[in-house]
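Please produce the structure of this protein holding iron/sulfur cluster.
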Amino acid sequence: MESMEQRIKDFVRQQGVEVVGIAGPDRLDGPPSLDPTYTMKGARSIVSYILPMDVEAIDAYLGKKSYVPHNLDQFRKNIRVNAIGDLVAAYIRTLGYAAEPVKANTTYRRSLYPFSLHPSFSHRFGAMAAGIAAQGWSGNVMTEEYGAANYIGTVVTSAVLASDRPRYGPRHFVDGWCRKCKMCDKVCAARMFREVEEEYVLVNGELHPRARRNDINLCNATCFGLHAISPDRKFTSWGFGWIRPWMKKPTDRMSKLSVIGSFLSRVFTRGDSGPRFQMIATLGKAYVPQEHLQAWFDRRPERLPYPERVEAFRELGEKIGVKGLRSDRLLTCGQCGLVCGPTVKESARRFSLLARSGLAVQNAQGEMVVAPTYEKAEEIYTERLPGLTFWDLLRDCLALVSLILRNYTGLEPRSFLGGIVYEARRRKAVRLRIAGHKDARPASLPHPAIPSPRSALPPAPATRRDEAARASA
Ligand code: SF4
Ligand code: SF4
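Below is the modeled complex.
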């Protein structure tokens, strides 16, 4: 007779999933966000599964044809991941055990520093623990089938399940593909990653390497659309704007205070940061009534011209309790994951699409248009949406602050203390690993890679403002 583990995995595969694995109690030792009991009391094991992103939609997104197909793919696949989670949890319950699906990672633990954004359960760490994926240089988890362009789902259960043997060792990708690639580093407008320094996540007693990261707010701001332009000013993500101080100075040389200062000063110039953040959270953690989503899909957003498309999205928002949306884009980057294909060659192809795509820029009507050069983009670029008053900005600022205070700020003793214990264990493991290494730094090791391609980037040209400042000096 088939084991329970095999029956569960067969059931997941019957839902059209190719990559699935299990981590039992012996393989769930790691950061607090790998603790399944946070999601469900008494949880002992997890089932982790992965779906691929739509590559045509990625091509359209990176190649600046349109962001809409990838946004729709995100919506549809997240719905599918959630639906599969419901079915798998229900199936496990028929076997006599409690089970719960984990929602998409927009449910964060409360923290005294709410920008740290620690998820209730990390799908990525879950996939690593279940042995179906390993970290790449960007810290996104990868499989040989899909690269890092994937969506991950998790179900937690009270069943004590036998763990799968990991498909990949912790350094599988970082020492393999990543040494020849580093495309994720090249596509990051915020310069989130150090060029050749590693840092580690401790999971099941093993150090899992990834690029040493700069301040997480660089990614928070860029993913939220506040900064979009590459350091060499040759391409952009689909973000709304540019953070000028980040264009002038390498962000890895900026203090934490100046990073967060410039992030916050930009977030309050949009006028719809509160509703957008609320929409991301609502779509991620709640089951949005199917009829509302279907009505929106039925309007074929990919075919609607700009103002109607935003109007359709705004109507969807109002139906699910989010008022004041001014754009149909929620997350605008994700490029480090999107560029990462199932071969180094494929990642290089995707990077080349992005590098040649031009600069997406917000015009005076609020529409995103693509400019061929930085100089042209500067001519078109408007920092503020049209028609915004001081009161609109103030209202949005208060809405966002209240959302963050109500939902993400606070002290959760279990997560807080668990984090301290985990960090002490991680540091000790890193110290043991790097002891004696001649280039060792306290928390990282150099990655013996080929030089990062970004070293070869030309110096950034001066902005119109730089020139104006020089002229008036
Ligand atoms: S894009 Fe390249 S370097 Fe980055 S994680 Fe993927 S394979 Fe590794
Ligand atoms: S999501 Fe965008 S900003 Fe964040 S690390 Fe990836 S490329 Fe950089």
